[in-house]
Amino acid sequence: MRGTEQIQDTKTNAEMAYHRLRDDIVSGELAPGMKLKIDLLRSRYALGAGPLREALSRLSGDHLVTQEGQRGFLVAPISIEDALDIGRMRKLLEAEALRLSLPNGDDHWEDSVVTSFHRLKRVELRNNQGIDEMAEWELRNHQFHEALVSACNSNWLLKMRQLMFDQHERYRRFSRMKTVTTRDIHLEHKALFDAAMDRDVEKIVEQIESHIQGTTNAVVKALTDNKACLETA
Predict the structure, then answer these.
(1) Among the CATH numbers 1.20.120.530, 3.30.56.10, 3.40.50.970, 3.40.50.1460, which is that of 80-232?
(2) How confident is the model over 48-75, as pLDDT tens digits?
(3) How far is 89 from 110, CA to CA, in rounded Å?
């Protein structure tokens, strides 16, 4: 019985380590290219070496962490080329997930889309955009996009879409730290919501492709500007 409890604790700690590391990588708290030394991570997260190594292996499979042979783990680097490729793939996967989701959406799906949009809207229409508000916006934004595709009946498509969403989110957060947005993101989300409520598949595909491309463009600008600053420093 004791052994079973220890195994369960290890699994729980590994899951905790995975989510905390993932969140810190996606948010930029752990910078691209940073060495992820086990001793440093143990101190930062107050978790054991075993769960941390298991989490790092999972994150390597998610392409958020890279492993250099016996040299250990690094936060995956970022680049303009990678950002463009991720943006292209996210457009393809998100569009296909929406094509399958909208015709399958039932009352529960519609309620989920309506609720998540209105929660997102409340955050986006506030004047205060401090750290707490940005954290809430990230959550509400994720919930809205998840709700839109939640009636998609392809599990593999949803898994691949989630992988690209996470990768794109990492780049998007980087661009938000480096640039001031000039887009009206709320209007873009409103257009997605209206198309979803109308069950207009072609319209929502057009809107999501434009929405994702706008993010990719902002990311490329941020990376280009950041590279120029580093070269002149």
Answers:
(1) 1.20.120.530
(2) 999 999 999 999 988 999 987 767 899 9
(3) 26
